[in-house]
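Changelog-adjacent note: as of this version, every example in the card shows the full chain rather than a window. The one below runs 538 residues end to end.
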Amino acid sequence: MKFNNKVIIFILGILFLVFIAACSTSPAPPAAPEQVIRYNIGAEPATLDPALSSGMVEQTVANALLEGLVRLDKDGHPSPGVAESWEISPDGKTYTFKLRECFWSNGEPLTADDFVYSWLRLLSPETASPYAYQLFYLVNGREYYAGEVKDPASVGVRAEGKDRLVVNLKAPVPYFLALTAFPALFPVPESMVSRDPEGWTLAPGKFAGNGPFKLAAWEHNKQIILEKNEHYWDRENVRLEKLVITLVSDSHTELAMFENDQIDIAETPPYREIERLAQSGQLKVSPDLSNEYYMFNTKVKPFNQVLVRKALSLAIDREALVTNLTKGGERAAYAFVPPGVEGPAPGHDYRSLGEKLIEGFNPAEAKRLLAEAGYPEGRGFPVIELLLDDNQNHKAVAEAITGMWREYLGIESKIVEQEYRVYLNTMFARDYQVARVGWIADYNDPMTFLDMWVTGNDNNLADWENAEYDRLIGSAAGSGDRAARSELMFEAEKILMDELPVVPIYYYTNPYLEKERVKGVIHPSFAILAEFKWAYVE
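Full-length structure tokens:
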């Protein structure tokens, strides 16, 4: 049989063309990554109302949805937010903010009047904000909150037209500009709040913000979905299209989700996995201006006795906790204000005034004090109910500490775990004996750890009272001399640590897990857990 030469030539020609095409075709460029980050925040936010928020969970979400006069940059310094510029008077008591053209996420314009409304709302007793005291620095701020001044026009905040906000302080406040980046001072939309005061934050259709993201969905106890806000003034610098916030409180489940690529960022890796994660190179650690402490309800017996509180503190081996349990670089705490907080001068650590204000582990002295309080060898001491939120890391520490109380003092304890929102409500209702608490700085100054313990402060959940402490903090708040106010705060902290309504346990670091493809997420050392304005996926 003979082959047809024309057919053979035709076939070879086709093959040659295919070969040339294959050789000359460049590989297709990789598809651009989807700009979505999945972030586990660890708990259902108790509220999205910035005036009512009291925890880092709420404030982190609020920081994505809203924006104040300034926004803190990656170094924690104030950068322009709604205010494009500002002037401070020579005496440090008058701030004039020039506002840029801004809009709420529903398209309505935002003006200086929105800040006046929001700040007066924060100060209103009817709002019952735990952070109302952050505006006591305003002229007549405290008096308006107390009902002694009725005229809102007498309070030191006013609008001059749509784009100028003038703030008058009683005395210079060195951190006031940074304080305006704190969620409690964010503006809220009066039209939506007045239309539905109780429910305006509960659903996307009711909520409007002015931040880099907008609320797209909230499946309670499951996830919150945020999308890029097309009305945000700086939207061109927001690369992320969607932020999916999962609400998983169990740290072991969170870790499994991270390792199975279900989330991109995990905030609370289990303490017992820290070493493995560090050795594998997955663990990341950032500084944190925060502390872990146990708080006593000083109105409940026997915790109303200083001797009892001191005995319980002396029976805690803090060094063992950070060495053998937490293992994330935490430091045992022997004072309340953590290291790294600015002190007598810029660049000077407040803790340089004194690092150790309480005695460390001393079980013999703890037994002696407990006996002096009327409970020798723990006899007759009631079972301690220790309140926690439902976080496995907090439970691990609580189990270790209650074991120490049992071993060294003969005191039994019952750990009471509650879902995060319920736990907050229980503390604010003062319906507890001893509670585990963590506090992160709202701004970089010792006052953020100390003014909360003034008599009557809404965050003074220990219900502790000390007139000399109140006087010292008041004097510090009214002082424009940085060194002098640091000394006043240090003297007040000595009183706090002598009476121990709160027992410091350790100073936090921030261990977390983050996928390598995630870029630009800022993990601040204070105020919030994470900043997503500049985040993107590579």
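Structural remarks: DSSP finds 16 helices and 23 strands in the chain.
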